[in-house]
Amino acid sequence: MKPSLYNLIIGFFALIVLIVPFFGKTYDKRRKWFTKIRPKGWIIISAFIATVIFTYLKDASVEDLEIQKEMIVQKEKKSSDSLSRIQNDESNTKTINTFTKALAVYGLKYDSTEKVIAKLVKDSSKTSTTNNYTDPSLTIQIELVEKIDFNNRFQFTTICNDATATSINLKCYYITEFTEKHMSGIRLGFRVIPKKSELPNGSAFKSDVILNESREVLKYYFFITGTYKSINDKTIFMNRLYSYEVENKRFGMPYEPKHSRILELFNGYENSEKDLFDN
User: Fold this and answer.
1) What's the CA gap between 274 and 145, in Å, rounded?
2) Strand partners, 183
3) Could you read off the pLDDT of 186-220 as tens digits, one per residue?
4) CATH code of the domain containing 261
């Protein structure tokens, strides 16, 4: 029960305590002990006891709400911290790879054990040459750029790193969450980048999508799935789940166990509808 409803009930009983004495005597002096109390007196006593009870219930309800809010804040904080760690690890890996490739151009390598830079030693007995290609890495960023009534315009940015990506074929499905307990079904979405596109290393492609809703949306869940290729024709798969809180404009990933449950729904739907994006 909401605190405002408790306040209404408490106010009602307080009003009874206030006005009942104006309609007659509440006790009889000629009698003894509890027999002195007239019916109107018992009404006042009952109303007072009810006021005390509902005041206690209201305080307990407010405390429960505060605990629930704190739990939600802590879960969101853990999710945000986890995303930050993942992004930091990816950034460190990319930095190391870039550094290693730059040293290789000059015939050098980094010895992580000794923590020194040394020359590469080539084995002259090997006559064959192996071409080591770096796989491209695509990442998606989502931003709410405009909100008009219940219509939300999002900007999807596809970023390419490490190497050129070719034959990009990415599609997006999404779920809308109206309340904590009410979500829409999976919606057939859109392409975040034109089919068979190519992105050079260090480039990005932006596309705007307007999602029309019939009422206010609390959160979106976007499932980006598909494939792209490296310059040596290696196929790379992508299956990523993102979340976006509309009110706070917070982009990230849903926390567990919701992440696994929603991802399972999307994977099953995507497999059953795989032919809808062929054109």
Assistant:
1) 30
2) 177
3) 777 789 899 889 999 999 999 999 998 888 888 99
4) 2.60.40
Nearest to 198 by CA among 235, 231, 241, 176: 231
Task: Using the 3D structure, point to which of 73, 93, 128 is the last residue of a domain.
Answer: 73
Give the tens place of pLDDT for each residue, 221-270.
999 989 999 999 999 999 899 999 998 899 998 888 888 888 888 876 65
In-domain check, residue 229: yes
Q: Does one domain contain both 61 and 148? A: no
Amino acid at 89: D
Answer yes or no: do 148 and 258 share one domain: yes
User: pTM of the entire structure?
Assistant: 0.50
At 49-105, the pLDDT tens digits run 888 887 878 777 777 777 777 777 777 677 666 666 766 666 666 666 676 666 565
- d(CA 42, CA 16) in angstroms, rounded, equals 11
The DSSP secondary structure of 16-38, one letter per residue, reads: HHHHGGGGS-SB-TTS-GGGGB-
Q: Is residue 90 part of a domain?
A: no
Euclidean distance between CA atoms 73 and 250, whole angstroms: 13
Q: How many CB atoms lie within 10 A of CB 221?
A: 24
Q: What are the tokens at 186?
A: 């999976």
Is residue 119 helix, strand or coil? strand
